[in-house]
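Contributing: when you submit paired examples, paste them exactly as shown. First protein:
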Amino acid sequence: QVQLVESGGGLVQAGGSLRLSCAASGGTFSIYVMGWFRQAPGKAREFVAAISRGAGRTYYADSVQGRFTISRDNAKKTVYLQMNSLKPEDTAVYYCAADRSAQSALSVRAPEYDYWGQGTQVTVSS
């Protein structure tokens, strides 16, 4: 129904910034709650941020709140994750996800999301 492709990952030093993009194709982008998750080697996939369909609401994991900003441009069918003040602990593969069935709440649970991108690697060196 919808294809998600992440980009913008790379290698940055601690304290640096990176902006991830997730471009959607197919489906109707505006109907999806969008989220970002990340997964480090040997660790479970964890929630990072989510944004409502109309971009009126956002929610962040405690570990990234104040440093990361999720946004979306429905006209461009793209969701972004601006990552500032990066820490080595932020190193992970970052995944974009789409949740079509979400009601008013923004889910932090990966199983609630219906579509996933391939992931983009973010590495923060110390």
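Second protein:
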Amino acid sequence: QVQLVESGGGLVQPGGSLTLSCAASGIAFSTYDMAWFRQAPGEERAFVAAINRAQTKTYSNSVKGRFTISRDNAKSTVSLQMNSLKPEHTAVYFCAAVRSFSGSVLSSRSNYNYWGQGTQVTVSS
């Protein structure tokens, strides 16, 4: 059974930092492209960052230079280090996975067939 479990969310003050983790099971992790998406209330799920099988990283323009995605194939985990957080970053953050394939569009929701349950990140003073 495929399972993606996010952790590390919580309440943080503006300007603070938070690191999210996603533990994967039931997949050959090293052969999968991994990503983070977020969804604020009343909005569609939006791309945040991705790291593919070749360990190439892609970020949305809004988080570039502030967030860092990484993966540990030995531990089957993908992480998202978030620095300089702002209230507009408040959302439920989701981990996503797809077996790597030619033509994979890392920023597209429809690209992924496995999703975690999400973890809440709230940035507020």
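If you have annotations for the second protein, write them as plain sentences, like these:
Residues 63 and 116 are 21 Å apart (CA to CA).
The chain has a mean pLDDT of 97.
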